[in-house]
Amino acid sequence: MSTESKPSTNSWATYKWVVSHLRPYRGKMAVIICCGLIAAAGELLSPFLIQRLIDKVIPEQDKLGFYQILGMLTAAFLVILVCSLTRNILQSKVSASAARDLQYNALLHLRKLGFSYYEQRPVGETLSLLNHKVQSAELVFKRFFPEIVQLCLFLVAAACLLLYQSALLSLIILPCFATYYFFGPRLDRKFSRLSRKMAEDRTSFDKKVYESVSGAREFRAFGSEEWDISRNRGLFKNVTRTTLSWVFIGHFRWSLRSFLFQIGTVSIFVLGYFLIQWGWMTVGQFIAFLLVYGIFMFRLSYLISQFIEQNMMLQEVSLLYDLVHTVPMLEEPAQPARLERIKGALSFDNVQFAYPDRPPVLKGITMDIRAGERVAIVGTSGNGKSTLLKLLDRFYDPTAGEIRLDGIPLQRLSFNDLRGSIGYVFQDTYLFGNTVRENIRFGNPEASDEEIEAAAKAAHAHTFITELSDGYDTMVGERGMKLSGGQKQRIAIARMMIKNPKILLLDEATSALDNVSENVVLDALQQLLTGRTTIAVAHRLSTVKDYDRIVVLDGGVIAEQGSYDELIEQRGLFYQLAAGEKRTDDTTQAAVPAGGEAIVLS
């Protein structure tokens, strides 16, 4: 059996994938970069206007030249303001749109992944990928990519201006630049690791504080306050130690950057003094060079920080990259077979199955189910009952063998045709946090209100729905928390009624209900089963007495099959299961007196 396979991730592949989501907005992105460059060019204009002011306007007392410089500075500031505002607005729009596209594509791919993906990964992990990791990608769109491009182009232009002003002064700052380039990134990486560890330690400490507050009763009852405080103290020491290291590295990094910047500045002052004395440079040129140098070093250090932070973001986004590039274990056929009219006949031909890295569950299931036949699958836990239903709905494909619907292998059918013909009622019904009406309509989005009410009546749900505060427009709460288990199951049955599938799969649909609710749901199921091929995994054998056939699984194979009465007469495995269920029911009834209070048996 094939399994979902993940790609080998590297930062460059992740970066190309993230940036590819900007392709539909490349025009706007070009405007963003141009606006950034124009704003930066306006910033570089100021030193040269100051040079002119010092070298010409002031010595010549040129008032007109002074007003011209003042006007040019004002115009430059206005251009910078307009370009910065335009850039910020467009950056917000483009980053939000690209992040939305990325999240949507990730969600679409998530739908293609096999059922194993959801069984092997917690929901919280997937939600984190679709939310927090998308936010990290949005930072790449909004901040890192455009700013890094702008900074690289800006630094090239600034370096050219420095060389143009004075090649000799430009060369003297190279040792400072090389020293910072050698030590700076190392300190930045150390600072980033400490930032991440500090956040993790803080999260652990906050979690422990929450446990201390929420479990205060238990700690006091067991006299474990000191034990709990000592655990808090240990975590607090970790947070303190990491925070102090983070503060030290942060200040040291800033101090080193400032020190090298000042060393470069002092070197420029010393050499600049002699260049002015020798007549190789004017005072204005020297001031302009010094200002451009300050801008250059500030932007250079910022660029290095941006690279480090972007790599941190890419580490997080790489998890999303892995998700989107995970190869689904199940693929639809390129040219699926078409079933004009689905009858519902099913055939299992030596079906075998094993979950990844686990022993075989099904070891050779062969049987034919007629259209409209009701078949119950029974047996002890771990014998593959629910797995058989998953194979029918193509949550997985068999390791070996074949399952056919009306003579056509399931792998040759499209998912829409296959799953559109199958209705699945789980033990734990999932209801959306919406109205009762919309939860039933989920079975057929095109259904009218009249059809919804008819389905609810057939499912014995109409009466309790009308007694709710807002009837069919009552909000059921998250996962249907405002409804009882029996009510949720009847809504699930109404949902299947309105879907009107030819094949019905019941996965222990009543095992979690009390006897009263179970009887009501069973009455509703009788309406649903009429005329449909039904395969039910049964926990309580009494619920499948009237089924056409009962199949007993044991050790991954069919041990017995026949009607309820036939299997009881055989006195085989099914007889033992039924006898065990009866003993359990008798014990339970004996433990419940007339008053209804359960007595705990020793």
Task: Describe the protein in words.
With 602 residues, this protein is an alpha/beta fold. It folds into 3 domains: 7-166 and 304-330, ABC transporter transmembrane region fold (Up-down Bundle); 167-280; 346-586, P-loop containing nucleotide triphosphate hydrolases (Rossmann fold), CATH 3.40.50.300. It contains 19 helices and 10 strands. The strands form 2 sheets. It has a 6-stranded mixed sheet, sandwiched between helices. A 4-stranded antiparallel sheet has the order 2-1-4-5, with helices on one face. α7 runs antiparallel to α9. It is elongated, with a radius of gyration of 36 Å.
- Helices and strands: which structural class? alpha/beta
Mean residue pLDDT: 79
Structural domain tally: 3
CATH class of the largest domain, anyone? Alpha Beta
Number of strands: 10
Strand content: 5-15%
CATH superfamily of the largest domain: P-loop containing nucleotide triphosphate hydrolases
GO molecular function: ATP binding; hydrolase activity
EC number: 3.6.3.-
Keywords: ATP-binding, Hydrolase, Membrane, Nucleotide-binding, Transmembrane, Transmembrane helix
Subcellular location: Cell membrane
Summarize the structure.
Residues 346-580 form the ABC transporter domain. The protein is α/β, with parallel strands linked by helices. It is built from 19 helices and 10 strands.
Task: Write a concise keyword list for the protein shown above.
602 residues, alpha/beta, ABC transporter transmembrane region fold, 6-stranded mixed sheet, 4-stranded antiparallel sheet, 19 helices, elongated, disordered C terminus, ABC_transporter-like_ATP-bd, Type_1_exporter, nucleotide-binding, hydrolase activity, Multidrug export ATP-binding/permease protein
